[in-house]
Specification:
The chain is mainly α and 154 residues long. The chain is 81% helix and 0% strand. The radius of gyration is 35 Å and the shape is flat. 1% of the residues are buried.
């Protein structure tokens, strides 16, 4: 079998001058883009399947609410409710007392010389503690009022 020299066309000559690193880059871009499109297609398939499960999820939620109502009557007894409300009340009041005491100590004239300005993070954390304590007290009040209206006892 004899071999004859092959004459390259102009388009083939252009390909022969491409550096091996550039081919690897192009293959990497193609590989990553195909992975991206596969992930997008999987997400789309997931939401299409989830849409089909909508009825099943709704029926399951309805059944769990009915079952939770039966369990709620057993859990909403005084031996559980009263200590939890008392703990929440004591915790919220203690938190507010500590915050007021810290503010009082910080504002005393004798401590002004050693005071450093509060950092924004510390101010924000004190505000969050205050807001959470007030919300806890509000929820306790709402719970007690609704319990009074429902069961005519605290």
């Amino acid at each position: 079998m004899t071999t004859a020299p092959v004459k390259l066309a102009k388009s083939d000559e252009a390909l022969s001058h491409v550096m091996p690193g550039e081919i690897g880059k192009a293959q990497g871009v193609i590989g990553w883009s195909s992975l991206l499109f596969a992930v997008l297609q999987s997400v789309c398939s997931f939401f299409v399947a989830l849409d089909g499960l909508r009825l099943l999820i709704g029926v399951g939620a309805l059944a769990s609410v009915v079952g939770a109502g039966e369990r709620w009557d057993r859990l909403h007894t005084d031996w559980i409710r009263v200590p939890m409300v008392a703990l929440a009340l004591v915790g919220a009041l203690l938190n507010l007392t500590v915050l007021m005491h810290v503010r009082h100590l910080r504002n005393r004239p004798s401590s002004q010389w050693r005071q450093k300005p509060l950092t924004p993070h510390k101010k924000r954390m004190e505000r969050v503690q205050f807001v959470l304590s007030v919300i806890t007290l509000s929820l306790i009040a709402v719970e007690e009022v609704s319990h009074w209206h429902t069961f005519h006892r605290l």
